[in-house]
Design brief:
Layout (H helix, E strand, L loop, with lengths): L4 E10 L19 E14 L3 E15 L2 E14 L3 E17 L2 E12 L4 E14 L6 E16 L7 E17 L2 E12 L2 E18 L2 E12 L9 E13 L1
Antiparallel strand pairs: 1-13, 2-3, 3-4, 4-5, 5-6, 6-7, 7-8, 8-9, 9-10, 10-11, 11-12, 12-13
Length: about 250
């Protein structure tokens, strides 16, 4: 078992609270088996429908054993709106990958979340599907995933009924390592409702990480989310800019 520590302090300017988790950001690149992971704490000043600040923490644990990979993430945020009211959000995500070919894996996941800012009282997801590695270079990697998922959603806008749906989730992710000190990762998700393709969500996240010295890096991230049918009163598109510093080791 490997010990791990990841401490970060984030200052961000944002208009969103993520509704689609970027699972690619959870994958810790390692050639050895065993546990690894991260724990972080953050503070941010944000604007969405209202002005608010956020205190948050997240835990990420990964276990790798030969062709098996398991990931767990728990992300909690507490938000104070307009200086008066506390709201909060939570995402818990569990994912399993089995690589049965050097460039093909099968993955399955379960996720639960709520987000008071976006009026999501509860959203539960269970999905599965293949994941393909489209490149062979270690400096430039491209992945394609095509999954189907069951969705259960309750929103608190007073209008939208309880949702039980089957959605697709297709993503393209690329990782670029121009030098040993720089990494660029970008992932885009497209999640349509199978019975009504006009009901879809798009999420795109890109990040740049630069190692300043051993085990210490600065990271810049941008996230964009579009939901064709959000809860009443919530904008269709939201985005977030984040910059932070991190220290990590196994």
């Amino acid at each position: 078992m490997k010990n791990f520590l990841f401490l970060a302090f984030f200052c961000s300017i944002t208009y969103s609270q993520a509704q689609i988790l970027n699972a690619e950001s959870l994958r810790k690149v390692t050639d050895t088996s065993g546990f690894s992971g991260a724990a972080s704490f953050n503070f941010s000043l944000k604007r969405n429908v209202n002005d608010f600040f956020t205190l948050g923490s997240d835990i990420h644990v990964q276990y790798k054993n030969n062709n098996h990979l398991a990931l767990f993430k728990n992300d909690v945020n507490f938000q104070k709106i307009e200086g008066e009211k506390f709201e909060n959000s939570l995402i818990s995500h569990l994912r399993y990958n089995y690589r049965f070919h050097p460039r093909i894996a099968w993955e399955a996941f379960a996720q639960g979340q709520y987000n008071k800012i976006n009026l999501i009282d509860f959203r539960g997801l269970i999905g599965t599907g293949p994941r393909f590695k489209l490149t062979t270079s270690e400096n430039y990697k491209v992945y394609l995933g095509t999954l189907a998922m069951l969705e259960y959603e309750e929103v608190t806008d007073g209008v939208t009924p309880l949702q039980r749906n089957l959605r697709g989730s297709t993503y393209v992710s690329f990782s670029f390592y121009p030098t040993d000190r720089i990494s660029i990762i970008s992932t885009t998700y497209y999640q349509p409702l199978f019975k009504q393709f006009s009901d879809y969500r798009i999420s795109s996240q890109s990040s740049l990480a630069v190692d300043l010295f051993q085990d210490f890096a600065v990271k810049l991230s941008h996230t964009f989310i579009y939901d064709a049918f959000p809860a009443v009163g919530i904008p269709n598109s939201q985005y977030e800019f984040t910059t932070g510093f991190a220290y990590t080791f196994d």
